[in-house]
Amino acid sequence: MKRFKRVLYVNEPQAPQQAALARAASLARNNQASLTLLEVLPEMTAGIGMPPGGPLSEELMQRLTQQRLAELEAFASAHVDDQAVACEVRTGKRFLEVIRAVLRDGYDLVIKPAEDPSWIERLFGTDDMHLLRKCPVPVWLMHERETTNYGVILAAVGCAPGDCEPQEQALNHEIAELAGSLALSDFAELHLVHAWDAPETMLAAWTSNPDATERELESAARRRHQEFMERVTKELQAHFGQEAWDYLTPKTHLVHGAPQREIPRLARDLEADLVVMGTVARTGIAGLFIGNTAEGILDQLQCSVLAIKPAGFVSPVAPSVA
After folding, report:
1. Do domains 1-148 and 149-322 have the same CATH topology?
2. Per-domain residue ranges for the chain?
3. How many C-beta atoms lie closer than 10 Å to residue 11's C-beta?
4. CA-CA distances (angstroms) from residue 258 to 120, 133, 291?
5. Which residue in 94, 114, 129 sits closest to 294, CA to CA?
6. Residue 116: count of CB within 10 angstroms of its CB
7. Strand ranges (DSSP E) for 148-270?
8. Cα–chain-centroid distance for residue 70?
């Protein structure tokens, strides 16, 4: 897989990182991509010998930045062998500086250990959700139990059959292709899931034979979604070729129910190590960050996530001037 050219790894000192960094280094190496480690220090307003609430001296902040850069370089050299790694330390709000680095330097993948806040049940913390909503490139958030090789990868695809816009079709293909490439490189099981609901069946209540009409409408909806899933798998088969496809032998899951309920349930049942999914259906509108369905899924996942936005997504974060 040679999909990425510039990989940005966001340092998360409070989380276990060795497996996550090893994964980032391996991915960069296999893609012949550059790898940068970014540390973002919070802004400080009071320093030693300074009045409370006063600005931190520029000299002290510079020393702190240099110290963290040296520590980051030592961390990289200890865990990344035979590979050039750039290190950078910036100051500010972390998610903003990460997105600005993407916009400024052209990174095409962000990798970060998940925050895993202990006071709530969901895996992803505030910075993670900001990145999922606003970062214009794929964001790979890694669970603290990240392994060097995945056993099960789940790719979630979907849009309304017959009403799938070109951007959505391309997004589905990217989700399936990335998941398939990772499954091949990790010798992992690949599962493709499409969860669907049939809201039109509610109209059956207004007919002379509600039960029969509901069954007919549901059956017709199932056929449309089955055709959609077959189209996705055929496109994926054509992308990889028959030999790789025979090795992958992906398992497909056509699930009747709300995606925000069924996809997390399937991820738990399969004990998935990674879920690959899209986060936005519409493009070109700055500030339209993430769909309700995607957010509902992300809130329930307890594994690593590779989240992808469609081409044309406009981040609401403005590039930095420096």
Report:
1. yes
2. 1-148, 149-322
3. 23
4. 23, 21, 14
5. 129
6. 19
7. 152-156, 189-196, 251-256
8. 29
Residue type, 89: V
CA dihedral in degrees (93, 94, 96, 97; nearest 10)?
Answer: 110
Residue with tokens 């599962």: 191
pLDDT one-digit tens code per residue, 212-266: 766 777 787 788 888 889 999 999 999 999 999 999 999 999 998 888 899 999 9
Helix axes 94-105, 126-134, angle to 10 degrees: 30
CB 159 within 8 A of CB 281: yes
Strands across the sheet containing 86-91? 86-91, 34-41, 6-10, 109-113, 139-142, 304-308, 274-278, 152-156, 189-196, 251-256
Residue 82: what residue type?
A: D
Fold of the CATH domain 149-322? Rossmann fold (3.40.50)
How far lies 122's CA from each of 130, 145, 272, 278, in Å? 15, 15, 16, 19
CA distance 217 to 235: 27
The predicted model scores a pTM of 0.86
User: What's the residue count for the chain?
Assistant: 322
Place of tokens 């961390």: 75
Q: Residue 116: pLDDT band by 50, 70, 90 thresholds?
A: low
Class at the top of the CATH hierarchy for domain 1-148? alpha beta
Quick: pLDDT tens for 9-18. 999 888 888 8
**Selection from 305, 172, 150, 158 nearest residue 236 by Cα:** 172
The least confident of 25-29, 119-123, 129-133, 171-175 is 119-123
Residue in 98, 155, 138 with CA at minimum distance from that of residue 3: 138
